[in-house]
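FORM 12-B: Structure-to-Sequence Request
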């Protein structure tokens, strides 16, 4: 359950006629991705081509979720997958394609491989359903579906068990529990209902309304966002309730600034929905939550005395708080919760582990951005979450972006155990990153609020690049670089890559993005700012440790991975060939030119092998080859015989190929049963 806890009610809300649009921020050098109405259908037609290009098995199918298109025609096609007809949870991927249709890059979830050896479960569905968890009371009977879970160390046949219930705060819960279909163990749990709380902060605001058929006006804006009265009906157990009656008024003046007029809460909700839509469209180039121009309904006065508000995938619902006296309709809630809808329709970050923290922080980031964008004098923009509602009863905010630990539970810095925390607390480091990258470290005052943001450990001080730039960087990262189980390392690489694409590798924005991730203790990855000259001597291979994923390497999709099922020698990525336990062929290769002026050239790499085979017969092999034109030379062959689970360096003299462009190739062949894994890392083609 994604919660934004808040407290007390404020101020007056008076609406006038249709408002003039809020001003838009300046565009970044590379326009934000947009969506064309026919792009999903067109992309699905090409799914088979992408399937073949990615080297996926015949058992896998690609299903287009959405398509984002850059101004230069580059497309980011986000796919879900099935395996032998089973939905793959965590198997999503993003294919970046040029305007001409050529594949430029692929961003996988935990692994490119989603195969399981069998789709026949050992655990019965009834046994799996018994593992289903409830987030609260009034629990409905669980339902379950056999799936492939690909968000962990290796793909697993699992049941996706869904339990609907209601939490103690009367907000609906739809809690998913992934249960291993072999062992019955719980793999992960997360709630799909995204919620928050806040007590009616009313705004003096102009509203976008429209003439109502039959006379008068209705609370519907130019995008289709509309606000309705649920009359304190609705079931918090399921989120199901009446669509509500559209708010109507004869003179287009709404509310009286107090809860005695039911339209007062509607003013805040409608203002929040319109402002959030306009922010995404005018600043980030996203045409609403679904990126198709649709507005979203908001239901106010939902259920009886519900002390919360939630986004359910289609609409916002706001409770009236204790005693139905404090509607939860402050703009931070709208910006935060509707941003969960944007996350749901882009990266789809699950609400668990590192991904859960990134999900929650994303809503804090864009909720903050919406507040700054609104620039309402009754609630000036700041880096404090829930500062107006006094949920703690002592005037302090719910969360602090400059120093998250000030709330007593959130973390300032990333660590390997961060994902074990509640997402509201594991969100701290990314919130901290956003502040640092925007404003820099140290003491300063912004809009009358004092901040003093530290760095972690011995990291250098950070110079901010401005909030407007960092908002664009994070949106591009969310929409084109992350998948459902992305972690903080992926966030760092994705944000730096996004900053390079938007503002350039030598820009202050890129430097601030990179420095801020270092300042929250996320280790350096493959993406770096600054210009990278071509190698002259030293290692001629690009991306030699695979830390940029499949960049610079070609071959079969999947072997280059950060899947933790086999360790990397250094960093997180490596080339894991084999390990399938079924008939398969996999290749990883890179073309490289060895200068004619060198006196020596040595190819080296580190190899780790393990196997389930036995005996002295070579059933599974990996060859190290040099391809020179039409001639392929095998330098060495490794097999299941004599495997060594400790990384060992292998070296070969390739001086004979100086002055030639060759391909360095790793070729793996595995037979029909019992796996052998050949894991390659830290490659080099060194010259002198």
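FORM 12-B RESPONSE
SEQUENCE OUT:
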């Amino acid at each position: 359950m994604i919660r934004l806890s808040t407290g007390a009610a404020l101020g007056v809300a008076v609406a006038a006629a249709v408002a003039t649009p809020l001003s838009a921020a300046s565009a970044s050098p590379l326009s934000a991705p947009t969506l064309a109405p026919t792009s999903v259908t067109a992309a699905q037609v090409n799914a088979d081509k992408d399937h073949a290009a990615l080297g996926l098995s015949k058992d896998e199918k690609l299903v287009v979720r959405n398509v984002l298109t850059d101004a230069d025609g580059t497309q980011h096609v986000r796919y879900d997958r099935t395996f032998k007809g089973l939905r793959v949870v965590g198997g999503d991927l993003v294919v970046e394609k040029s305007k001409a249709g050529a594949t430029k890059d692929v961003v996988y979830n935990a692994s490119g491989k989603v195969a399981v050896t069998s789709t026949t479960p050992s655990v019965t569905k009834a046994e799996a359903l018994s593992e289903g968890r409830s987030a609260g009371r009034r629990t409905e009977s669980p339902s379950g579906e056999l799936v492939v879970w690909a968000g962990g160390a290796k793909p697993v046949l699992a049941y996706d068990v869904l339990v609907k219930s209601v939490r103690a705060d009367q907000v609906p819960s739809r809690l998913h529990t992934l249960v291993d279909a072999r062992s019955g163990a719980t793999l992960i749990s997360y709630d799909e209902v995204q919620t928050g709380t806040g007590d009616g902060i009313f705004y003096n605001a102009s509203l976008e309304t429209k003439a109502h058929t039959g006379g008068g006006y209705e609370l519907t804006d130019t995008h289709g966002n509309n606000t309705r009265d649920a009359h304190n009906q609705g079931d918090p157990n399921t989120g199901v309730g009446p669509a509500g009656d559209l708010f109507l008024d004869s003179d287009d003046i709404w509310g009286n600034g107090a809860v005695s007029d039911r339209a007062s809460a509607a003013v805040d909700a409608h203002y929040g929905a319109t402002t959030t839509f306009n922010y995404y469209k005018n600043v980030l180039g996203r045409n609403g939550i679904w990126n198709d121009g649709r507005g979203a309904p908001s239901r106010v006065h939902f259920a009886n005395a519900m002390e919360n508000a939630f986004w359910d995938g289609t609409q916002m619902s706001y409770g009236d708080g204790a005693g139905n006296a404090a509607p939860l309709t402050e703009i931070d809630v709208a910006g935060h919760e509707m941003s969960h809808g944007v996350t749901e329709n882009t990266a789809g970050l699950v609400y668990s582990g590192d991904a859960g923290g990134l999900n929650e922080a994303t809503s804090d980031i864009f909720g903050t951005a919406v507040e700054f964008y609104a620039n309402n004098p009754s609630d000036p923009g700041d880096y404090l979450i829930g500062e107006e509602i006094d949920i703690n009863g002592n005037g302090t905010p719910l969360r602090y972006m400059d120093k998250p630990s000030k709330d007593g539970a959130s973390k300032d810095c990333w660590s390997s155990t961060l994902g074990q925390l509640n997402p509201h607390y594991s969100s701290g480091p990314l919130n901290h990153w956003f502040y640092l990258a925007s404003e820099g470290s140290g003491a300063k005052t912004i809009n009358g609020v004092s901040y003093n943001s530290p760095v972690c450990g011995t990291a250098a001080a950070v110079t901010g690049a401005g909030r407007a730039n960092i908002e664009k960087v994070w949106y591009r990262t969310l929409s084109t670089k992350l998948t459902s189980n992305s972690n903080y390392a992926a966030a760092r690489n994705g944000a730096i890559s996004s900053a390079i694409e938007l503002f350039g590798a030598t820009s202050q924005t890129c430097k601030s993005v990179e420095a801020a991730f270092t300042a929250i203790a996320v280790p350096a990855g493959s993406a770096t700012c600054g210009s990278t000259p071509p190698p002259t001597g030293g290692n001629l291979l690009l991306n030699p440790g695979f830390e940029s994923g499949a960049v610079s390497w070609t071959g079969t999709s999947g072997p280059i991975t950060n899947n933790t099922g086999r360790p990397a020698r250094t960093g997180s990525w490596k080339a894991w060939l084999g390990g399938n336990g079924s008939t398969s062929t996999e290749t990883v290769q890179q073309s490289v030119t060895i200068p004619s002026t060198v006196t020596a050239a040595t190819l080296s790499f580190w190899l780790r092998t393990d196997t389930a085979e036995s005996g002295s017969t070579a059933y599974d092999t990996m060859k190290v080859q040099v391809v020179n034109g039409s001639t392929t030379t095998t330098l060495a062959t490794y097999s299941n015989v004599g495997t060594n689970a400790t990384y060992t360096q292998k070296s070969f003299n390739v001086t004979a190929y100086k002055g030639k462009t060759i391909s360095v190739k790793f070729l793996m062949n595995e037979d029909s049963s019992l796996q052998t894994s050949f894991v390659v890392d830290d490659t080099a083609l060194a010259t002198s």
